[in-house]
Amino acid sequence: MTLNNAVPLLFFCILAVSLSSSSVQGRPASFLDDFRITWSYSHIKQSDGGRAIQLILDRNSGCGFASKSKYLFGRVSMKIKLVAGDSAGTVAAFYMNSDTNTVRDELDFEFLGNRTGQPYTVQTNIYAHGKGDREQRVNLWFDPAADFHTYSIMWNHHHIVFYVDEVPIRVYKNNEAKNIPYPKLQPMVVYSTLWEADDWATRGGLEKIDWSKAPFLAYYKDFDIEGCAVPGPASCASNPRNWWEGTAYQALTAMEARRYRWVRLNHMIYDYCTDKSRYPVPPPECIAGI
Ligand SMILES: *[C@@H]1O[C@H](CO)[C@@H](O)[C@H](O)[C@H]1NC(C)=O
């Protein structure tokens, strides 16, 4: 060892010790460190020494994976390259679910495929204490099948934010003070699936999947879960020193707020809050302010 790299190495050791002494998860070395396959082993292929995976949808099956632990608060992100070409009728999802049925909490990203050249739609939904029906949809401003992009869910005591790259596309505030339900007691599993949903996904089910284009392939890498694993130290979730609870993450920054406005003005194609046929009176969270 030369003196030159002794200093960075020392720094690395201090960093490693301070990370391992907290209960917070870091970036895993491989997919199987944090996740397990839940649906169709034959349709998930690992690459890059287990750091990246390929999901396959064909006539026989779709597939899915889930985190080994549940998490209570934190930030989950992964890089995804969606099904290329004619992806109409396919849906890839990345979501968190407390798996508690009628009182479940759930945070959903769903990527709805489209005919070649037509924009992918990202649908988000939020269930709190068993109640969902909070769909929003945005058309992406880039081709998500051309390259990897980062999709993240930030969940702390103050808000839930869905990000596409660094851009917030959805914010759900903790407005418990106004009696609006907020997920905060139930830890959630992180899931992802790729499946066929041509009865509803593309143009409301008008565009059917073209099986002659199968197999449909989606790619995932850079899995990163930072949160309080459950089971784990009971005090973790309420620790105000967790980085995701820090002041910088308690509300959108000015830059994020600008980007969020830009998405809502230019790329939002559906918002349950303004769907008068479903909700003649807007749901309370829509008027509580964001
Ligand atoms: C697919 O493309 C059509 C036509 O551009 C668009 O109206 C629709 O929002 C896109 N997404 C889905 C999921 O249908």
TrEMBL record:
Cellular component terms per the entry's GO annotation: apoplast
EC number of this enzyme: 2.4.1.207
Compartments in which it is found: Secreted, Cell wall; Secreted, Extracellular space, Apoplast
List of glycosylated residues: N114
Keywords: Apoplast, Cell wall, Cell wall biogenesis/degradation, Disulfide bond, Glycoprotein, Glycosidase, Hydrolase, Secreted, Signal, Transferase
Superkingdom classification of source: Eukaryota
Active site: E106 (nucleophile), E110 (proton donor)
Span of the signal peptide: 1-26
Residue ranges of every copy of the GH16 domain listed in the record: 22-220
InterPro entries: Beta-glucanase-like, Beta-glucanase/XTH, ConA-like_dom_sf, GH16_AS, XET_C, XTH
Top-level enzyme category: transferase
Molecular function GO labels: hydrolase activity, hydrolyzing O-glycosyl compounds; xyloglucan:xyloglucosyl transferase activity
Major subcellular location class: secreted
Post-translational modification remark: Contains at least one intrachain disulfide bond essential for its enzymatic activity.
A GO biological process held by the record: cell wall organization
Purpose: Catalyzes xyloglucan endohydrolysis (XEH) and/or endotransglycosylation (XET). Cleaves and religates xyloglucan polymers, an essential constituent of the primary cell wall, and thereby participates in cell wall construction of growing tissues.
Family stated for the protein in its record: Belongs to the glycosyl hydrolase 16 family.
Protein name: Xyloglucan endotransglucosylase/hydrolase
Organism, scientific name: Hibiscus syriacus (Rose of Sharon)
